[in-house]
Amino acid sequence: MSEEPSDEELLTGGGVQGFGLLYERRYPLIRGYLRHRVGPRPDLVLDLVAETFARALERREQFDAQRGTAIGWLLGIAHHLLVDAVRRGRVVDESRRRLGMERIVVQDAQLELIERDSEFDLQRALWQLPAEQRQAVEERVLEEEPYTAIATRIGCSEQVVRKRVSRGLAALRRSIKENA
Amino acid sequence: MTDLDPYAALGKKLIVAAERQASNGRAATSKRGWRSNRVNAVAIAAVLVLAGGAIAAAATGVLNGSPVKQQGTPSPNAGFGVPAPGGSLLLALQTPDPQGGLPWGMRLVHTTRGELCAQIGRVDGDQLGQLGIDGAFHDDGRFHPLAPDILPNYSDSGDVTCNVAGLIRFGSWPGGDRSAAPSPERTSYRPAVKDLRLISWGLLGPHGVSVTYSTAAGVRTSPVVSGTGAYLIVSSASRVPSSINGGGELLGWTSGHEVAVGFPPPGDTSGAVIAATYRFGSFICSIGHGAPVSTSCPMPPRTPENRFAPTRSLHEPVQVKTVPPSHKQCDEAFLLYPCYRAQVQFKAPYAVTSAGSEYSIETESTCHNARPSGWSVIRDIKQGETVRSQSSGLFNCISTDYFQVNYRNGDMGAPVSRASHESVIIGTGVLGNPAEVPRLQAQAKRRLHVVIRRPVHR
Residues 92 to 151 of A: which have CB under 8 A from any B CB? Predict the structure, then answer.
């Protein structure tokens, strides 16, 4: 049996279907990350998730697997969009406009449903990780600390930090699948 | 996902968009992709004409546009300060662009707060500026001069980087726009890789001799400008950087015949420079890998960490209280009302007279969401002055929040420091349950082992 393609393979070589699979696989984590930061604002979270993946679709040729993981790249986009949204007071929709994607009109009933579905708590999943993996994921992926700074702070090699981040993200992914 | 689930609808829309994109034969749409193809073609043609016009301006200097505007209201006593009178110097150093047109150049700007800013741009005659192409200045194709007496009010956007004067610096701006304009206002637009630049620049200091760097044609070594040790290398980017942020720089210092800088290891691709050569009297040495001189420059002993991250506390009183922002401000920060700012008050035991030192507030919180984050008081402060400073960020959870006020010396361990004192903890203040403080103090201690101006290479 063939092995499941990695996020990186789906993003860079998976074509249209690959991107669709990547979205299905990863949107819960991106949604969880944004919900964690934004709070119970499902309409806002949906808007940010939509622009995050639109931007990823638009720029997927710019992704470089040698510089990091696909999920880290997606979280980076989400983070920057969130910061930009806070600064502007609105979520930009430029990538969606360029891609010709119409805004999704959400009814109140749908909002309630997606808020219930979003109850997966990234923080809870993080706390289920071993302490050293949790720290590495929090500092590298969520707080965007350089690997070198993390390594210096906790007194280990950069390679060890990279391994912890990689293992932590893999464990988070499993956790999300189990909670989906 | 169900049909009722908007995320399922979003997935379908993304698939349709990806199919449309694939049928257009490319993964990356142009910045005007939402317009009709007809309009798009006209727009692209117009941009090409304008870009050509800008390149022509290199020869004629005719197409001058409006000067680059000052952003914000800079203060001579806060932030970077403002350019000191007579403190701006456009270096004679000029580097061609891979696609021709106006060359690239560098200006050094000394500020009223002791910062030295390196400004990178395109050069027309004796002016440094930016081009109206690739989305900058509405694609007007003109040259927009940067007056010597203005600085943007932010740093690390690539085109200008400020740091304490006297340090040696290795900067890189990977994926810089060929317009030389910074990208924050245009975060949605990324041009083709061929139109991006890998810009490596630096200041080796008075002992600098040359830099060795990688090019598509192999490794090369070029002399640096005498006195400042300045260099500027511009090449086509080989890829778009994964980070949306601008560039970064490595900082260090020289003393005697020692060079203190954490140079990137072999294989690091964030900048073109792989080695630098120094001369101390008759002693010639290098740092990095691949320089013509293989003798390594001695490194000074490791700087004690408390030089940057304080461990000793003065136990001075620190008062903390919450300040409620308006409903609108909470809403704009995507926080439920009520939300808060923290206001910290303390008496400054040391003066801050330049950007070489500052008071900073580190925070730790038991909140898991929307917790307060640390900030710095970046302005001149008199000794004995009562400082009141509010957090820039908002938060909507008050459980136990711990605030540690530090005086931080940003001299990077250099032997000559203009800061009046070593880094030290001034004192701490708490909102909430004091019993939580020891655990939060331990968290804060761990975080404080990051230097105040850490290298930004990622």
Answer: 92, 94-95, 97-102, 104, 106, 109-110, 113-114, 117, 123, 144-149
Cis peptide before B338 (omega within 30 of 0): yes
Q: What DSSP state is assigned to residue A165?
A: H
Helices (H) and strands (E) in chain A, counts: 10, 0
- Can you read off the two tokens belonging to residue B126? 């004796």
Q: Name residues whose C-beta falls within 8 Å of residue B16's C-beta, 6 or more positions apart in sequence.
A: A101
DSSP character for B305?
G
Alpha-carbon gap, residue A29 to A120, rounded angstroms: 9
The 10s digit of each residue's pLDDT in B212-258 is: 998 888 889 999 999 899 999 998 887 655 444 445 677 788 887 88
B210 vs B287: CA distance, rounded Å? 11
What is the token pair recorded at A146?
């350089």
Give the integer Cα–Cα distance in Å for B284 and B86: 34
Contact B4 A23 (CB under 8 A): no
CB-nearest partner of B27 from A17, A38, A61: A61
Q: At B426, which helix (H) or strand (E)? A: strand B424-431
Query: Please, which pLDDT band fits residue B427 given cuts at 50, 70 and 90?
Result: very high
Token duo for residue B207: 């002992």
% pLDDT > 90, chain B: 21
Average pLDDT, rounded, for chain A: 76
Q: How far apart are CA B58 and CA B123, in angstroms?
A: 8
Judged by CB atoms closer than 8 Å, whether chains meet at A59 and B446 is answered as no
Q: DSSP code of B385?
A: P
Helix (H) or strand (E) holding B60: helix B37-60
- Element spanning B213, H or E: strand B208-215
Whether B359 and B407 have beta carbons less than 8 Å apart is answered as: yes
Instruction: State the CB neighbour count (10 A cutoff) for residue A104.
Output: 16
Among chain A residues, the shortest Cα distance to B7 is held by A46
- Assign residue A46 a region (left: φ > 0; alpha: ψ between -120 and 50; beta: otherwise): alpha
What is the helix (H) or strand (E) element at residue A171, kind and residue range?
Answer: helix A158-179
The amino acid at A22: L
What kind and span of H or E run contains B201?
A: strand B196-203
The owner of tokens 């500026």 is: B129
**Interacting residues of B55 by C-beta distance below 8 A, sequence separation 6+:** B99, B100, B101, B102
pLDDT of residue A123: 58
Phi, psi dihedral angles at A146 (to 5 degrees): -65, 150
Q: Which amino acid is at B337?
A: Y
Cα separation, A54 vs A46, whole angstroms: 12
B276: pLDDT strictly greater than 90 = yes
Show the beta-strand stretches assigned E in B281-385. Answer: 283-288, 319-323, 341-347, 357-365, 375-377
Q: B320, B429 in Cβ contact below 8 A?
A: yes
pTM of the model: 0.58
Cβ-Cβ contacts under 8 Å, A21 against chain B: none
A82: nearest Cα among A58, A104, A60, A52? A52
Mean predicted lDDT score pLDDT of chain B = 74
- Strands B375-377, B248-255: pairing is unpaired
Considering only the beta carbons, identify the residue of B10, B34, B457 that sits closest to A50.
Answer: B10
Cβ neighbours around B331 below 10 Å, total:
14
Instruction: Measure CB to CB from residue A24 to each of B11, B20, B239 and give the nearest one.
Output: B11
Which residues, in sequence order, are CB contacts of B148 under 8 Å at separation 6+? B83, B88, B90, B107, B109
What is the structure's pLDDT at A45? Answer: 85
